[in-house]
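Minutes, project check-in
Item: structure for the 219-residue chain
Input as provided by the requester:
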Amino acid sequence: MVEISTSILGLEKENAIKTMYNLETAKIDYFHIDVMDGEFVENNTDERMQEYCNYLSNITNIPLDVHLMVKDVKKYIDMYLPYNPNIITFHIEAIEDKNELIDLIDYIHHNNCKAGISIKPSTDVKKLFDILEIVNVVLVMTVEPGKGGQELIPDTISKIKGLSEYIKEKDLDTIIEADGGINLSNAEELKTAGCEILVVGTGLLKTENYAETVRAIKE
């Protein structure tokens, strides 16, 4: 069964804690923390995401799925490790040197955390093939990273299919996660393509009954 990682990027600040409680009750699997630095992407969400992580550390045991859309990856890994995330994911496009890439993955693992690599819609999935053995999660962006509420880019589904086929062929344990424009109308296609975690933000938060939406996506 697919897992749901709920992006809290679009939460209304005044109702954030109440919404977090409601999402927990709806049986989501992760809170997805969208960390943006204003450099790798245009928006800067770091201060708000740290505030939300502080809330979550006091009210829930649901694991955190931290997605770093940042240039200075090591700096932000260190900033979010104290929140004890289950997964820390960073973008392959942010790192030019392969040795640095491997060192960052090792660093995340040594801090008792799963390591994820994310790719933008325009990045060739083959860039990941030689590091798949050492990453736990590949986060395929199905929209351009940087803001919520976008529509899923259809071509990214074929990218997920190709990645899933390669992972099966090589008998790897790497999990595929998809992020961007995901809702009830396209979740089934993504699951069929090979996704095991779906990041759902507005596609869940704008529905009337979180529990029903979560159940429908998982089924």
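Outcome recorded: The mean pLDDT is 96.
No further action items on this chain.
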